[in-house]
Each structure stands twice: as C-alpha cells, then as structure tokens.
Design goal:
This protein is mainly alpha-helical. The protein has a domain at 1-49. The chain contains 6 helices and 2 strands. The protein has a two-stranded antiparallel sheet with strand order 1-2. A hairpin with a 3-residue loop joins strand 1 (3-6) and strand 2. Helix 2 (53-66) crosses helix 3, helix 2 (53-66) packs parallel to helix 5 and helix 4 crosses helix 5.
Length: 167
C-alpha cells in the first residue's frame, strides 16, 4: 500500500486509487486528514485537561442547567479573574469543548443533568414568582398555567442566551 508524508501529521498509508486522483482531490484528501488529526489532538488535549466524569457531570447539571447555560462563561470567568489573570476566551473554549465531549460520550446522562438542573431553577423561579405581588395578580388572571408559561418563557429566553456562543 502506498504511503505519503503529510506535514504535521507524518506518514499516512493511502489506498491504491490515490495515484489516480487529480491534484485537487489529493490536496482535499491531505487537508481532510490534517484537519481530522488536529481535531483528535485537540480532543485529546481536552481529555488531559479534563477533570473527569463527575466534574463534567456537575459542569453540565449545575453550569448548563441551574445557571441556564451560563456555566461555561462563569467557570472561565472565575478561573481567569474574568480575563485579568488568564486567557478568558481560551478557557471558555476549553470548557465548551469539554461539555461537548461529555455530551458526545454520555448523551443521555448529559441531557438528564441539564434538564434536572434546569428544573431546579424553574421550580425555584416558579415558587418565587407565585409569591410576588405580580405573581399573585397573574395567578388570579391567568391561573397556574399562565404563571408557569410566563416563568417558562422567561427562563427559556435566558437559557437560550446562555447556550449561545458569541454575540
């Protein structure tokens, strides 16, 4: 089987049909191999930096659930002094990568943790809203369903903003 050397990757075995490809196809193949290698290296680096299963479970449940998707920003901010003591952007990208890796490797657990954390926030918000003067008026006018819809819509909007990356 023929072998080619790719800068930054090393020697790679290719199929017999590689020699029959056009130069453009060969370059696309080399670019894809190089990109995949970089993705693997980045993921492996995150695994080395990762705090493990329980830390990522807490990061998902608390950070993405209870904090409505703002946990990655909060963790990066606290560990870098909000950019004064370290590279905030690099840290938030690393945390987001660890969250993605955890969700890819444990999809049901990550979903359950995020929903569970969100329910804590939603339940607390609903109780607090129902006890307020505005909440009592809303309960009289729209009932519990209307109050729950209002709380849910508000928290959904906040969580949507928290789950977004960038502006």
């Amino acid at each position: 089987m023929p072998k080619i050397e790719i800068d930054g990757v090393g020697v790679v075995e290719v199929g017999e049909d590689f020699n029959n490809m056009t130069n453009r196809q060969k370059q696309d193949f080399v670019n894809r191999v190089s990109r995949e290698r970089k993705n693997v290296e980045t993921k492996n680096k995150r695994k080395d930096d990762s705090d493990g299963y329980l830390a990522n479970l807490a990061r998902t449940g608390l950070g993405q659930g209870v904090l409505l998707g703002f946990g990655d920003e909060m963790e990066a901010g606290l560990t870098t002094g909000f950019g004064l003591l370290g590279d905030y952007d690099k840290k938030v990208a690393n945390v987001r990568g660890q969250l993605r890796d955890f969700a890819d490797e444990n999809p049901m657990t990550a979903l359950a943790a995020e929903i569970g954390g969100g329910l804590v926030t939603g339940g607390y918000g609903g109780v607090k809203a129902a006890g307020s003067a505005l909440g009592k008026k809303l309960l009289q006018k729209a009932g519990t369903t209307g109050l729950a819809a209002g709380v849910g819509a508000t928290e959904g909007a906040i969580a949507g903003a928290g789950a977004g990356e960038g502006l």
